[in-house]
Amino acid sequence: MSLRVTFLGTGGAVPTTERAPSALFVNREGDRLLFDCGEGTQREMMRAGTGFGIDRLFVSHLHGDHVLGIPGLVQTLGFNDRTEPLFVHCPPDTGDDLRDLVHAAGHQPGFPVRIEEVTPGELALSADGYEVRAFETTHRTRSQGYVLTEDDRPGRFDRPRAEELGVPVGPAFGRLHSGESVELEDGTVVEPEQVVGPQRPGRKLVYTADTRPRERTVEVAEDADLLVHDATFADDMADRARDTAHSTGREAGRIAQRAAAKRLALVHVSSRYAGDASPILRDAREAFDGECLLPDDGELLEVPFPDADD
After folding, report:
1. Euclidean distance between CA atoms 135 and 149, whole angstroms
2. Which residues are catalytic?
3. C-beta neighbour count of 149 within 10 angstroms
4. Does pTM top 0.85 for this prediction?
5. What is the pLDDT of residues 112-161, one digit of tens each?
6. Where are the beta strands (DSSP E) in the chain?
7. pLDDT tens figures, 70-105
8. Contact 248, 235 (CB under 8 A)
């Protein structure tokens, strides 16, 4: 079951020729989720080949570099004859402003745009096999991140043991693996726990958007398979990061280290690093022992299951 992340916009408030403002596209087994939609997101979608057909949009906050791509994307979806609703999830008390933004150019979508405010800690989406929940972040306006958490998966099926117990090859295997008991021809009942190992965890993806480092992020990102964290500045600009309510690469690395995340992706890179963003990556790697990435716009990342190498 695939979980693919495409970094559509990895830049800060000011776009550069290499980095567009914030947008993260997630394809979870065909469910297409977009986290933030900065200016130019449509062009990045075309370049990356994600298509425009998103199912849900999750807005972290209402700064322009996170939302100014929404009116154009909604208009394009209408031009493409979309009829199904577009659900837009956003922080509390921001829904009215988002509605105004959707209609800012006088465009009336030909499909429903359903804007739903979600409070940090609450579910934004409960879907088949996973959920998306909001969590509070610290920025200069009302803001929040989102964590996608998959359900636990059934344990591994022990086929040799099942055959040893006399379970016939075929549908009975599937019933046992799904948690059902199976009665054999001789009346013996085989229970799932006899042939199925312990449950295996699903994957966890955390997107902070713009934020200062905070304890809540450590809690939410515990054992995350991928943490996508604000890393606007290198460590020598730590004062600037505090003043603007952003994080440095080193601060993002410390959060990932404390959370025992498996991978850290650094985003929202300030335009002052247009020529060379390596100092941000260097600082993060000094603080984080796991895999640390500074993705380019358009980069695709496959998120494996925690036990993929077992």
Report:
1. 13
2. 65
3. 17
4. yes
5. 999 999 999 999 999 999 999 999 999 999 999 999 999 998 888 899 99
6. 3-9, 23-28, 31-35, 56-58, 86-90, 113-117, 123-127, 130-136, 144-150, 182-183, 189-190, 204-207, 226-230, 263-267, 291-293, 299-302
7. 999 999 999 999 999 999 999 999 999 999 999 887
8. yes
